[in-house]
């Protein structure tokens, strides 16, 4: 399955694992299952609460410093 870009500058349909998330600071990183890339995630990009090692689905959106995980849901 290859990610597809839509009209909102999202790359959709990614799955990964939460590698780190700091509740107090409101950010963390998700490792993509297909590419092994790690993506920044901000608390504002979460749909569900996440913890380290949670399996998640997410979209990617271009941020100021590269791609960020958004619409993050636990699976």
Can you give keywords for this protein?
75 residues; mainly beta; OB fold (Dihydrolipoamide Acetyltransferase, E2P); 5-stranded mixed barrel; 6 strands; disordered N terminus
Architecture overview:
- The protein has 75 residues and is mainly beta.
- The protein has a single domain (4-74), classed as Nucleic acid-binding proteins (OB fold (Dihydrolipoamide Acetyltransferase, E2P)), CATH 2.40.50.140.
- The protein is 0% helix and 59% strand.
- It has strands at residues 4-5, 10-22, 27-32, 38-42, 55-63, 66-74.
- A five-stranded mixed β-barrel has the order 2-3-4-6-5.
- The model is unreliable at 1-7 (pLDDT under 50).
Question: Quick recap of the structure?
Answer:
With 75 residues, this protein is mainly β. It has strands spanning 4-5, 10-22, 27-32, 38-42, 55-63, 66-74.
Task: Summarize the SSE layout with pairings.
Layout: E1 4-5, E2 10-22, E3 27-32, E4 38-42, E5 55-63, E6 66-74
Parallel strand pairs: 4-6
Antiparallel strand pairs: 1-2, 2-3, 2-5, 3-4, 5-6
């Amino acid at each position: 399955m290859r990610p597809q870009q839509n009209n909102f500058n999202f790359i959709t349909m990614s799955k990964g694992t939460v590698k780190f998330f700091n509740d107090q600071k409101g950010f963390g990183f998700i490792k993509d299952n297909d590419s092994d890339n790690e993506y920044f995630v901000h608390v504002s990009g979460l749909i569900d609460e996440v913890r380290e090692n949670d399996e998640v689905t997410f979209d990617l959106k271009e941020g100021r410093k590269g791609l960020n995980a958004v619409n993050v849901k636990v699976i």
